[in-house]
Amino acid sequence: MPTALLILTTLVALAGCAQSVDPIERLGKKAAARVGPHDARGRDTYRHWGLTAPLAPAPRHPARTLAGSPGAALPPVVDHVPTTDRVVFLTYDDGAERDPRFVDMVRELRLPVSMFLTDTVVGPGYAHFARLRSVGADIQNHTLDHPALRGLPYAGQRAEICGQQDKLRSRFGLRPRLFRPPYGAYDTTTRRAAADCGIAAVVLWRASMGPAGLTYAHGPHRLRPGDVIAVAPDESTGPGLRERTTHLLRRVQEQGLTVGRLEDYV
């Protein structure tokens, strides 16, 4: 075989081998980039957000363990989910804080957070929460106007809850399953109105993260698997929302826990 033909044949064969391998290698690199601990700029993502180790993954297929029987007349009130999974749940209220870097934090750490929104607090800021939803946050109901519901007549409570259900459906195409009453104040009328608005559970919190750190509504002063945690809104003093979330995540990791998606459990 002439030398030129031999070289050409060899090059064609090598090209064929490259074509059969490269797509797989490229796919593997893309998958590694999606699940690896580094971002597009090569940073250790968890270190960038102030953590000393990556968050442990939550269970992929948790069993729903919400207290209360299916089809019950009134939705259960929960601040703790009975589960053996070593997860806690991060929740945020109102919608006044619209730090774009919090969106980056949720995306890069893959935090399954739940945002309980009040329409009059969010105001013109729904686009921010659409971005949060696009990176994995869940959107839930916190009334139209943030009144203390306990003691109000049924019609007023129903208007607050169902009204926000309608607002969130018009904004996001969804009707939330979970509802948090402002200030944690509720009564039987609240639960009845929530049920009539399509709510599956009234969600309170066992622990809250504020400027001074973690406080507990009841029970032991330590995090337990299944705890619902409310991360308090920014205030005029103390660390901001991202800093509070970082401090909380450190505590979560110190106690051998990770963050789960509340909606997977209720």
Protein architecture, described:
By secondary structure, the chain is an alpha/beta fold. The chain folds into 2 domains: 1-35; 45-265, Glycoside hydrolase/deacetylase (TIM Barrel). Helices cover 40% and strands 14% of the residues. It has 9 helices and 10 strands. It has helices spanning 3-35, 45-48, 100-109, 119-122, 126-134, 154-172, 188-196, 241-254, 262-265; strands at residues 77-78, 87-94, 114-117, 138-141, 178-179, 201-203, 207-210, 213-216, 228-231, 258-259. The strands form 2 sheets. Strands 2, 3, 4, 7, 8, 9 and 10 form a 7-stranded mixed β-sheet that branches. Strands 1-6-5 form a 3-stranded parallel β-sheet. The radius of gyration is 24 Å and the shape is globular. The model is unreliable at 3-36 (pLDDT under 50).
Tally of contiguous helical segments: 9
Task: Report the count of strand segments.
Answer: 10
Identify the CATH class of the largest domain.
Alpha Beta
In the predicted model, the low-confidence regions spanning at least 5 consecutive residues are 3-36
Radius of gyration: 24 Å
Look at the helices and sheets and give the structural class.
alpha/beta
Percent range of helical residues: 25-40%
List keywords for this structure.
single chain; 266 residues; alpha/beta; TIM Barrel; 2 domains; seven-stranded mixed β-sheet; three-stranded parallel β-sheet; 40% helix
